[in-house]
Amino acid sequence: MTEPLLVGADLRKTYGQSAALDGASMTVGAGEIVAVMGPSGSGKSTLLHCMAGIVAPESGTVVYNGQTLSTMSDKDRSALRRTEFGFVFQFGQLVPELTCLENVALPLRLGGLSRGKAEESAREWLGRLEVDGAADKRPGEVSGGQGQRVAVARALVTGPKVIFADEPTGALDSLNGEQVMRLLIDTAKETGAAIVLVTHEPRVAAYSDREVIVRDGRARQVEMVQ
Amino acid sequence: MRAWFNDLVIGIRLAVGGGRTSVARLVLSTVGIGIAVAVLLLASSVGPMIDARYERAAATQTIPEKIDGVDPLWYLNSGTSFRGESISVAYVWPTGHTAPVPPGIPKLPFDGDMYVTPALAELLAQPGNDELRARFPYHTAGVIAPDAVIEPGHARAYVGAGPEVMGRGERVYGFGSGTRVDRPLDPSVLLLLLLGSVALLVPVFIFVAASTRIAGAERDRRLSALRLVGADSAQVRRIAAAESLVSAMAGLLFGTGLFLAGRQLAEGVRLRGVSVYPADIVPVWWMAILIVLAIPVLAVSTAQFAMRRTIIEPLGVVRFSKPVRRRMAWRFATVGLGVALLLAADGLSSNSQFWAYVVASGATLVLIGVPLLLPWVVERTVAVVRGGPSSWQLAIRRLQLDSGTSSRVVGGVAVVLAGAIALQCVLASLAVIFDAPREFGEDPSEASATVMGTSEAVDEVAEYLSRADPAVSISRFREAYVRFPDGDAMVHVRIVDCPTIERQLKVTDCADGQFFVHPGAEEPADGLTPGRVLSVLHYGDGGRGPGQTYGNWTVPPVRRALQYWPTSMSWYAITTPQSFPVVPAEGVTAGLVVDPVDPETLERIRTGVALARWDAYLSQHMVTEYQDPDREMFVAARRGLLIGSMFTLLLAGTSLLVLALEHIRERRRPLAILAASGVPTGALARSLLWQIAVPIGLGMVLAVAIGVVLAALVMRLAGTSTLVVDWAWVGTISLAAVGLVLLVSLVTMPFLRGATRLSSMRTE
What we know:
The complex is a heterodimer.
Chain A: E1 4-15, E2 18-29, E3 33-37, H1 44-51, E4 59-64, E5 67-68, H2 74-83, E6 85-89, H3 100-110, H4 115-128, H5 144-156, E7 162-166, H6 174-191, E8 194-198, H7 202-205, E9 210-215, E10 218-223
Chain B: H1 2-16, H2 19-59, E1 62-63, E2 73-82, E3 85-94, E4 113-116, H3 118-125, H4 130-135, E5 139-143, E6 155-160, E7 170-172, E8 174-175, H5 187-211, H6 216-228, H7 233-265, H8 285-306, H9 329-344, H10 353-384, H11 390-401, H12 404-434, E9 449-453, H13 455-468, E10 473-483, E11 490-496, H14 498-505, E12 514-517, E13 533-539, E14 547-554, E15 558-561, E16 572-575, E17 590-595, H15 599-612, E18 617-620, H16 629-666, H17 668-676, H18 681-717, H19 727-755
Parallel strand pairs in B: 3-6, 4-5, 11-16, 12-15
Antiparallel strand pairs in B: 1-8, 2-3, 2-7, 4-6, 9-17, 9-18, 10-11, 10-13, 10-17, 12-16, 13-14
Helix pairs in contact in B: 1-7, 2-5, 2-7, 2-8, 2-16, 5-8, 5-10, 5-12, 5-16, 6-7, 7-8, 9-10, 10-11, 10-12, 10-18, 11-18, 12-16, 12-18, 12-19, 13-15, 16-19, 18-19
């Protein structure tokens, strides 16, 4: 395994009475593709959210590049999400009011980049993901596959070190799912970004270097034999 | 700095550029805020409107004090009325070339000429107004300039007369005495105005706040998506602020436009007989600035306040948790403080303005309690509701999940209702105290026309009428003042024959030796005890000269207090000619009673009076003239409040509509799924109806309870136990609210049909 970039150790998180994570641990190396698998309700999404710093675990630590996320301020964690992390979720991550181009440019603009430069960069990424035709359309006006490619473009536009993908092909047919996964993996490899990929589909998990199996809130790491 | 700028730009972009959805959202909140702004601007213009009227009225006030070097102008105020329209006429005759000229006309009219206001010119020009034209057989020399006319609808004429005015009118040495009497408001009237302002303006702020919170769930989702891509919480707040600022600014612009457009139309609008010049509708400058600043601040702070519990996290919409339990302490404390203030006011003198402010503050807090408590009442009620048809269940389940937004908007409607009910009760109760006009005498067949003037004038009119309209019955009367021997107190006595007394006062056994008084007669009429001897006064100079004792009047032996009494004669005592000594014809007001009259006969009589004697005038018993300025103020206050209520109810209706449309828009997908799974559109429509009807029903119950209790408290503080609750009116306003709900539901039907198309299931 490569040098760990992101380490989650002994993570615990409960929602109401039920424990979503019960001492789960996992590591992600730079440029590594890790699939998080498990049955529904096992806690795999919660593990991803904790690793990305968008949900705070009740106990345990998440360390990214030597920085413990739980000790960081909201502002710093947000900046981390904006600059170091990228996200591709199944639904809802695109802002419906903005065009696809504006959606991709959004993280750059939130970081203070001028509109012109942000959109120039966004247009370039839309082209790389073969959805430049959707630039001026709103998310509601493009197909599901195009929408996910836009989401991938947005996840990659800031040059992140880690991409968190939660069921990125869950709402797509197999052909579109295949294309999106291929683009995501290829582009991430090209840029050297690691991917944490939550999925319950073995076909999607097959793109990963390593699998983490989550069951009842506990994670078990499985090395893939390619 | 650039990051801040970017955040604001993103917020603005989210508000304006999101296609049909965000445009619809923007339009809805803009309309809501816009109407509120227009109402606030109008409310802030009331003061200047009244001031401008007073100033114009003051400019036409006559100066009777002698001014050296000025030839006096003989000036006689008279008037007529035409189909309910009052027309004032001033007959003028200059005694020299330096006589003053009334404002608004270039020079004094020659004998037989007249200057008229634009409203009177229009009336005279209208076809079918021959009766009116006959009363003004003068040449129109010009139109009085509008800046010298109190209001656009004011019908007035300056008629050039001859020396016959001398001795009848007053000598005038100038116009525009400039003395505006700023008498302090009666505490009861002040309280009424304060309560009215509170009842009308509190809902406006509630609607502004509610408008910024529509589509809250969608906004949360949007902001969550922003958090996911790295916006920190401060950035999200800035973006949300910019977003709400857009609708606030758009609402401000729309409201200002609405206000300006409405202002232009004001001249042609007459509400309950009052019209205003557009130029008078100018908000007080500091209030306008306050509105311009307060609306955006309110919108932004409401949006921020709404986010206090919604910690917008990147996954804020992924996981829903049970709604946070409402903190009730401060809500009850607000109402408690209001009640405490009302109770504390009990110890203060009700004659002070401070008392009025304390009571109004207490009432404000109690009224604010309505929207504060309503969400809790709705939440607690729907929590225990079980069963019912599917539409009912859908509505109740939805309300159980989130009743906040509808309760908030309905809270605004409920404040209007509570305030209106409280005001109505206070008004009805005060009406008893002020002896305000009642329905008495509005049936023209019951009414009598009374011609008043000098004996000579009345004789001429009587002669004219008997020639022109022989069918009408005419009876003559005289009036005199009698003075009590032990002071200056005087009573106005009308001397008229028994048949007329029987007809007018509805008695059957009138006889000499009787006199009649109003049942509620107070001092000095109350002191008219049989056998008492009073001096009869004689006023020279057309009744305007100093009083001279003419003879004595011994109060007749039988005093009768009657229930049926024309309100315009409440300060009279009435007796028969045989019970009163002879008084000279000259200098005593005389009159004719002509009855019964229908409106058209009345117009003919008026024309006859005008043609026969220009210094005679005519009144009808059903017309009540308010001499008491407090009464006038009371009537004006009531009129203003009713007009204001109409605007606020319009706002309430618009907000309900906005709420319902937004609800459909926000829930397009679940509604489409329900429709797709076979739920009939009718059931969905009924479900929407229930979702508005349940909170509004509870709001009405709360409003009636708080309104009546508030009115009872206020009236108790006002020192009267008379609380008049007009249940018919309460029922009417409640029905109006129900009607509003039905109307809103009806208007939303096409939108609901659109939302339940299967294509609505496809969303991003």
